[in-house]
Amino acid sequence: MLCFFIHGVNAKKATYANTLIKNIRNEFYKAQDKPSLKFGSSYWGNMFNHKKLQLIEFIDKDYRKACEQHQEYKYSHNDIYRYRTKRNEFISNFLGDFLIYQNPKRGESIRKRILEEFTQFIHDNPRETQIHFIAHSLGSLILWDILFSDIISNDDSVLIFRNMLRQLNLVSISTLGSPLLFLKEMLDIDFSIINSVIEKPSSKNDKFRWVNIIHSSDLIAYPLKASIENQIDLSRSNLLFSDQYVWQCANEFEQTLKNLGQFDLAMVVAAEDAHFSYLADNLDGEITARIISYNLLGETNKLIETSIRPR
């Protein structure tokens, strides 16, 4: 069994999935009939850092010019363009990666990098034929493009990717902190395409599995089932889909502010930690690993029985 990761925004190291891998392995140790499990991961997070830095430099240059022009406000320059550090972090960690992938040429370059890493992973494990994908954040859109998108150009590396996948048994995907609900509206994604890609099942146990994991405080992650059911009759499809909620506070500050009735502030202080909680070395990460393990092992009854997991 092969399991391949695709990251989203703000992945600063190639080891971003290591903690989640450890937690999944811990869950596998508990299973009675556990198959061999081998992990691989893509890393494209360093490809366009120069573009993000350039954007921040342009903004800082304009800010400095405004300050130089208006020396009468020299004691209030920091208030003219507020929250500079946080703005730059937002560009570097979130917005920059998202916008870079939307550029067709850069998006294709990112997919090409992922193909190269995936190809090496497959070549390193020639005896394994069962493949599972795990995608976080923007990685869920990248995975959608790789597997399902019908607007890929004829020279895109995705076509090579799909040819490779035809030689394998694509069993499941797990999406974490996925913004696909809103990207569907922005990009006019058609979920019915899934039916033309996955094969008709010979039994319920053969269904293609998709688990979408949502942390309760993650403002980027939203459920997808109703949107998918609007375009796919799941009772007749080879797709077995499940939304799963990690019902936790993202940090102690969120819990404290909630207890004080400060829900707006709680939302703000929780947002970033919640979005990366799936990969964290804490209870949130352990719950995420448990859900993914059910998906990898085909324990669909455990996914159907409950969708809210407080522990």
Short recap of the structure:
This protein is α/β, with parallel strands linked by helices and 311 residues long.
Explain this structure.
Helix 1 (about 20-30) links the parallel strand 1 (about 1-5) and strand 2 (about 40). With about 300 residues, this protein is of the alpha/beta class. The chain has a seven-stranded parallel β-sheet with strand order 2-1-3-4-5-6-7, sandwiched between helices. It has helices at about 20-30, 50-70, 75-80, 85-100, 105-125, 140-145, 160-165, 180-185, 195, 225-230, 250-260, 265-275, 285-295, 300-305, and strands at about 1-5, 40, 130-135, 170-175, 210-215, 240-245, 310. Helix 1 packs across helix 13 (about 285-295), helix 2 crosses helix 4 and helix 11 packs antiparallel against helix 12. The chain has a single domain (about 1-310), classed as Rossmann fold (3-Layer(aba) Sandwich), CATH 3.40.50.1820. The mean pLDDT is about 95.
Layout of helices and strands, plus pairs?
Blueprint lengths: L1 E5 L11 H13 L7 E4 L7 H21 L7 H4 L3 H19 L1 H21 L5 E7 L2 H9 L10 H8 L3 E8 L3 H8 L5 H5 L10 E8 L9 H5 L9 E8 L5 H8 L3 H13 L7 H15 L2 H6 L2 E2 L2
Parallel strand pairs: 1-2, 1-3, 3-4, 4-5, 5-6, 6-7
Helix pairs in contact: 1-13, 2-4, 5-7, 11-12
Element order: H for helix, E for strand: EHEHHHHEHHEHHEHEHHHHE
Portion of residues in helices?
40-55%
Class computed from helices, strands and strand pairing: alpha/beta
Largest sheet: 7 strands, parallel
Top CATH class: Alpha Beta
Which homologous superfamily in CATH is the superfamily? Alpha/Beta hydrolase fold, catalytic domain
Q: Which regions have little confidence, pLDDT < 50, spanning 5+ residues?
A: none
> Whole-Å distance between the termini?
27 Å
- Which architecture name does CATH use? 3-Layer(aba) Sandwich
How many beta-strand segments?
7
Oligomeric form of this entry? single chain
User: Strands of the largest sheet, in order across it?
Assistant: 2-1-3-4-5-6-7
Measured on Cα atoms, how large is the radius of gyration?
21 Å
Strand content: 5-15%
Net shape: globular
What is the name of the CATH topology?
Rossmann fold
Number of domains: 1
Mean pLDDT: 94
**Number of helical elements:** 14
